[in-house]
Each structure stands twice: as structure tokens, then as C-alpha cells.
Design brief:
89 residues, three-stranded antiparallel β-sheet, 3 helices
């Protein structure tokens, strides 16, 4: 089973949210349905980035690293995301 580091973007609030999950699409739906307190006030979100890992520890390490990156870095990452997964090209 894989685990993913993911990056969401709220265009309405110009905010990013970084997390990890086994099911990125399901997690996006949970964020957009307000099921998660930490992100509910900034919905709706688009999934703009995922990276697959074989271990929880590696995914978590990447999540923490990505959370420290500034808005400009995340904007550049969003530009690389394919439009079919919400990239902001």
C-alpha cells in the first residue's frame, strides 16, 4: 500500500494545505466537505500535487519539509501540476 504527500490549494483564500494520506481523492473530498477542522474555513480546495511513497516515515518527512516551503515555492510547484489534477497552469 502506498502513502501520498499531497498539496491542496484554495484559490478563494490563496492558501496551501499540505498533508499525507493513503487516498488523495477521498481526502480532498473530506477537506471540501468540511470534515476536517484544520482546513474547513479555507475550502474549496483543488488537489495540485501528490507524491507517492512506500513508507509512512518517508511521506511524513516530505510533508514536514514541504510545509516549511514558502508560498512562492508552492506556486512554482502548482505550475508544474497537470491541469487534470488541479494544476493552476
Amino acid at each position: 500500500m502506498f502513502i501520498y504527500t499531497y498539496l491542496l490549494f484554495s484559490k478563494k483564500h490563496n492558501k496551501y494545505y499540505t498533508g499525507i494520506t493513503k487516498y488523495p481523492i477521498k481526502r480532498l473530498e473530506e477537506h471540501n466537505n468540511g470534515k476536517l477542522k484544520s482546513s474547513s474555513k479555507f475550502k474549496p480546495y483543488k488537489l495540485i500535487y501528490t507524491k507517492k511513497y512506500y513508507s509512512y516515515q518517508d511521506a511524513r518527512k516530505h510533508e514536514l519539509w514541504l510545509k516549511k516551503k514558502n508560498h512562492e515555492y508552492k506556486n512554482k510547484l502548482a505550475q508544474l501540476a497537470p491541469p487534470e489534477i488541479g494544476g493552476v497552469k
